[in-house]
TrEMBL record, chain A:
<protein>
    <submittedName>
        <fullName>Transporter substrate-binding domain-containing protein</fullName>
    </submittedName>
</protein>
<feature type="domain" description="Ionotropic glutamate receptor C-terminal">
    <location>
        <begin position="26"/>
        <end position="254"/>
    </location>
</feature>
<dbReference type="InterPro" id="IPR018313">
    <property type="entry name" value="SBP_3_CS"/>
</dbReference>
<dbReference type="Pfam" id="PF00497">
    <property type="entry name" value="SBP_bac_3"/>
</dbReference>
<dbReference type="InterPro" id="IPR001638">
    <property type="entry name" value="Solute-binding_3/MltF_N"/>
</dbReference>
<feature type="domain" description="Solute-binding protein family 3/N-terminal">
    <location>
        <begin position="26"/>
        <end position="255"/>
    </location>
</feature>
<dbReference type="InterPro" id="IPR001320">
    <property type="entry name" value="Iontro_rcpt_C"/>
</dbReference>
<comment type="similarity">
    <text>Belongs to the bacterial solute-binding protein 3 family.</text>
</comment>
<feature type="signal peptide">
    <location>
        <begin position="1"/>
        <end position="21"/>
    </location>
</feature>
TrEMBL record, chain B:
<dbReference type="InterPro" id="IPR000515">
    <property type="entry name" value="MetI-like"/>
</dbReference>
<protein>
    <recommendedName>
        <fullName>Arginine ABC transporter permease protein ArtM</fullName>
    </recommendedName>
</protein>
<feature type="transmembrane region" description="Helical">
    <location>
        <begin position="173"/>
        <end position="196"/>
    </location>
</feature>
<feature type="transmembrane region" description="Helical">
    <location>
        <begin position="108"/>
        <end position="127"/>
    </location>
</feature>
<dbReference type="InterPro" id="IPR035906">
    <property type="entry name" value="MetI-like_sf"/>
</dbReference>
<keyword id="KW-0813">Transport</keyword>
<feature type="domain" description="ABC transmembrane type-1">
    <location>
        <begin position="30"/>
        <end position="227"/>
    </location>
</feature>
<feature type="transmembrane region" description="Helical">
    <location>
        <begin position="208"/>
        <end position="227"/>
    </location>
</feature>
<comment type="similarity">
    <text>Belongs to the binding-protein-dependent transport system permease family. HisMQ subfamily.</text>
</comment>
Length: 256, 242
């Protein structure tokens, strides 16, 4: 009797494990929303944006079934490690610090960062002298956070927000003097908003590489080399056949 | 001891996370957390004593508004209260032009207001219970001595109520310390804010949060021992004889 019980329990366990084995044609992609125009929700709640459309096109190209998993930004790399999803496609900039943790695809988009301030601000450019004593807003854990903290953390007051929305709210409330964002994000949340009047301060920033890296990449676990290669190949195909440019034109009016 | 220090030195030498800089973030966070919790507890306590006395009043006009206040602040999450006070107040017409704005603009003051109102609500109810539990005989004795109600309150009711409220109030202090961990949602760099910063920067959840958990644990135990000491001094006579 006892033997029979052990055997049936064992076979049950085996059956359960094999049922859990991952379906190879399904890929789960982690994404942090909202982040217009890269990834956001339509009024009906559907995920959309440049990353989402490109990701879906890549999956179609590879004949894979994709599922988007929404995950807050500050936990997005640990979530990949914890196997909550197999890839991150959420406007993540490639840099050396992240390369220690994850494997990146080829860059698929390279946006600059920029400083945004109210239109009536006196600021002409961002420097240690001009930012002295001001309140700077950044999104926690972004490369803009790292850059602003290292460059101006000693002279200015750095306010870190969990979401870009909270930051824009505080910008409207005049709690912040200036914010540092990916240019496309600032463009859609500040320049094109009707809540206030904002402008870009100084030049677009893409240097130094140590912070701004090499553009946005799709992140994978280090051991998923094959998956990354597949994505890279699909990306190349989409670039060649014009699909990439078509998706890009949907969200950005400027050519790179 | 020497060997231990050398071990520690070696351990700190080849880690990239706990540098002098990140430790200083934790240090600043500790100061912010302690300031925030200490100030809100003190102000909350000062508010709670008259509120608790009013809450025990038979007059509905005094009793009911205080009940409504404690009901609302004990019935909603502190995080929601913090959001309303920090992000919501901005939308009140004219607030940005008023003299209050420089205070509200800074995240510390809205956080302090939210924490203070919250702890005052809980403390009021704790004290109300303690006041209600005053033995009737003590009040009758005070009256027999010809004390006025105000004098009875000051000499008899409040001192013994404070003692009875002590264990429950000690809990409230610790709850408040733990609840303060949400301050970083309004950009304050408290202890949790420092941990989240280190976590986001180095993608190291365990190192960042275990370290901060240890600091909270130390603070909690310090509070616990302080209240145990107070209870021994003030409530010794109530200990069951063994």
């Amino acid at each position: 009797m006892k033997k029979w019980l052990t055997f049936s329990l064992l076979s049950l366990a085996v059956a359960a494990t094999s049922a859990q084995a991952r379906n190879d044609d399904q890929i789960r992609i982690g994404v942090d929303v909202p982040y217009e125009p890269m990834e956001y929700r339509t009024p009906s709640g559907e995920l959309t944006g440049f990353d989402i459309d490109l990701g879906n096109a890549l999956c179609a190209e590879m004949n894979k079934d994709c599922e988007w998993i929404v995950q807050g930004w500050d936990g997005i790399i640990p979530g990949l490690m914890a196997r909550k999803y197999d890839a991150i496609m959420s406007s993540m900039t490639i840099n050396d610090k992240r390369r220690e943790r994850v494997l990146f695809s080829e860059p698929y988009f390279t946006p600059p960062s920029a400083w945004f301030a109210p239109a009536d601000s006196q600021l002409e450019s961002a420097s240690e002298a001009s930012l002295d004593g001001l309140a700077i807003g950044v999104q926690r854990g972004t490369l803009q956070d790292n850059y602003a903290t290292d460059m101006y953390g000693s002279v200015a007051d750095i306010n870190r927000y969990s979401t870009a929305d909270d930051m824009v709210l505080d910008m409207d409330a005049e709690r912040l003097d200036i914010v540092f964002l990916d240019y496309p994000v600032g463009q859609s949340t500040l320049l094109e908003s009707d809540s206030g009047d904002y402008r870009v301060v100084g030049d677009m920033i893409t240097e130094p590489k140590q912070y701004f890296g090499d553009g946005f990449g799709i992140a994978f676990r280090q051991r998923d080399r094959d998956l990354a290669d597949e994505f890279n190949q699909a990306l190349e195909t989409l670039r060649d056949n014009g699909t990439y440019d078509e998706i890009r034109a949907r969200y950005f009016d400027d050519a790179e | 001891m020497q060997a231990l220090l050398e071990r520690l030195d070696a351990l700190l030498a080849d880690n990239s996370i706990f540098t002098l800089q990140t430790l200083s973030y934790y240090g600043d966070g500790l100061v912010t957390t302690v300031q925030l919790v200490f100030l809100s507890l003190i102000i909350g306590l000062v508010l709670a004593v008259p509120l608790a006395v009013g809450r025990c009043s038979r007059h509905r006009l005094i009793n009911w508004p205080i009940f409504a206040y404690t009901y609302v602040f004990r019935g909603t999450p502190l995080l929601v209260q913090l959001y309303l006070i920090y992000y919501g107040v901005v939308f009140v017409e004219g607030v940005q032009e008023s003299w209050l704005w420089p205070l509200i603009k800074d995240p510390f003051v809205p956080a302090l207001v939210a924490f203070t109102l919250n702890t005052a609500a809980y403390t009021t109810e704790i004290f109300r219970g303690a006041i209600k539990a005053t033995p009737q005989g003590e009040i009758e004795a005070a009256r027999a001595y010809g004390m006025s109600p105000a004098l009875t309150l000051r000499r008899i009711v409040l001192p013994s109520a404070f003692r009875r409220a002590l264990p429950a109030y000690g809990n409230e202090v610790i709850f408040m310390l733990h609840a303060s961990a949400i301050a970083s949602v309004v950009t304050l760099m408290d202890l949790t804010g420092a941990a989240r910063f280190v976590y986001a920067r180095f993608y190291a959840p365990f190192d960042a949060f275990l370290f901060v958990a240890a600091i909270y644990l130390c603070l909690t135990f310090a509070t616990l021992y302080f209240f145990r000491f107070l209870e021994k001094r003030l409530l010794g006579h109530l200990k069951p004889a063994s």
